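Subgroup meeting minutes
Present: P.N., E.W., G.H.
Scribe: E.W.

1. P.N. recapped why we're keeping a running log of single-chain structure predictions: easier to compare across weeks, and new members can see raw inputs and outputs side by side.
2. G.H. added today's entry (755 aa).
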Amino acid sequence: MGTGFPGMIGGTGNPTGSPGPTKTSTPTPTPTSSPTSSPTGTPTTTATPSPTRTPTPSPTDDGGGQGDDDAVNVILMVGDGMGTAQRDAIRLASVGLTGELAMDSLPEVGRVHTNSADPGTFITDSAAAATSMATGVKTYNGAIGVDLQQQPVASALEIAERLGKSSGLVTTAQVTDATPAAFGSHVLDRDEQSAIAAQYLRSSHPEVILGGGEDYWYPAGNPGRLPDNPAEDESEESAGTEGNLVEEAQDLGYEYVWDLPGLQAAEGDMLLGLFANEEMFQYGDDVVEAYEPTVPLTEMTRKAIDVLNNNPDDNGFFLMVEEEGIDAMSHVNNGALTIESGIEFDNSVALAKEFAEQDGNTLLITVGDHQTGGMTIEPLGDASNPDSPVQEGPFDVANSDQQFQIDWTTGGHTGDDVPLTAMGPGAEMLTGVYENTRIFDVMVSVMRSGTERDFDLQAHRGGRGENTEESLTAFARALELGVTTLELDAVLTEDGRVIVWHDDIILAAKCADTAPATAGDPEFPYVGDRVAELSLAQVQTLDCGYVQLPGYPEQDVAEGNRIAELSDVYDLAREYRARGIRFNVETKVEDGQAGGPRSVALTEAVVEVVRDANRERRTTIQSFDWSTLNLVDRIAPELTLVALASTPEDLGVGQPGAAPQLGGIDIDDFGGSVALAAAAQGYDVLSPIFTTVTAEMIAEAHERGMPVIPWTVNEVADMHRLIDLGVDGIITDYPTRLRAVMAERGFDLPRAYGR
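Output recorded in log:
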């Protein structure tokens, strides 16, 4: 069903204090259908429920934070391949026998099982291990963000984004390698790295992406900023399969950097940095092993935290940081470089710890995804183990005259548990011994605990009581005033363009003809015509700001207003840099045509515009025609569905048969309850006419995880009454009035934007 939209759940200032729970979101993308290998062959097309996750308790405030009413940041730091022995070798070589690593100084300690659910072997690879941590679901080796049935499973990063947080992925591997990929994509095989990169841009939208792997962002023959076939590894060259993804990222607003000076100078709130063709170090066959990243992990970590923490539009952040060098150098049994990359990882942990201590409301976790190499720390000249295949040494123990050697038993992964340390809100839930899926459970639990969003102030048609309805002027003034959501209507022109307008017919009370779109146009004049029979060019000749709308004496007229397209509203928000604003788009239903071909065409066109604008995360689709919502659920499951409802009479309560606008269901099968009917269809938000709202309706909706946002509430007394009942937001023609009510009641007010 449509994904939950936690931004609409009542939070700070809600007098009831009892909004419904947020649903776990369904992941946006569909997995690619052409894996190079998988245990189950051709991917299934029938949705299969994901395995049930073990619930975790709600985190408690540890006394050092701001409490559960504030957004909780999560920083997950993964030392790929880092088992207990790697961690100890890093400690001995850097701080000695009595010293303490930053990652070992975190107060909560756990031990994590790493096994995958692969039918061939329980020894995990990085893809299955990362998917378990990212989604809470065990899967087969090679899987990225999909379960054993090859169905996509929502990741912690995607849930963070839908909770209104910003997010980031940082690694010294390719940014599309297994560990970061599991947090931001869904493919059947980890080798599909260009598809992974494309999903970052088109589906999961992390604001920060830093690491290597430029080769997968540029098509073959286009080397990008980094030359193909470099001397250190002549096999490296661009091999992208999704077009020029760097250009696509820049079109979406990412600032692109490719070296350390560029990273340090970057000022954008969306950042893509690709600093190597492949990994940010060299290892493997036919190359000289070296750990010399041109951009250190510490610098990437520092920048990612700075960008994510300073975005005023977002409700905290989620950041995954990975050091791949520990795993890579353990694969080739190079103890010195394993230690070197591990020291850089620990220095990065120290930066994150310093931030978490100052912030007071950040959960910081450090863990390995599995153990690599079967590393053991031994005394020099161990006569009891003369046949060990690989022994390295000596290595100096820091701050002493002692030394040790490293014994390697394999070049692959092992089934060993790995240590975990953590601090901050919810960290106490990570003590003990448990499966790696628990990491997901705890991260999501703490993110949800602090992300109930403020009361949702929706400006109906931009605030038609104050400005000409559906005009760009109205939407601009709503942004400048400070609202949570721009509510607007969508209608389809004859030539398939989505315009922002309420009426099926061009009404003389709102619009006046000016001139024909083309000389001698036989359809002119256009007033009185159906929008469905007019082209965009014809519609935009109309002056729909020539007169004040009757019944709205406070309305300022936007003189000469021309009907805008939906894409124009998204562009306006970009001009205002209003990344936090949300859009509630109503697909209008022509009289007698609910669920008909025009309704389908409009819905499909709206979805296309939303996706082209990359505003899926911030857009809800609402309709009185519930068949439209069902269609959106099928073609765009990433979008949030809002069930509009009118009076009981209109819904057919107590009448035989199903009301046509309810998509084929009979509301009497649900006891006449619109909340129960909407919840049964899997819709995310209930938006009833305000005169029908009762405490019972709100309780029924909240018990099923549905916020209640009534329409259209214009009188101050009604606003107070509905807030007292416990609604989660209000749609109003008078956003200034509602802001005053919210201020009087001590609510946090939405941010105002300026050009």
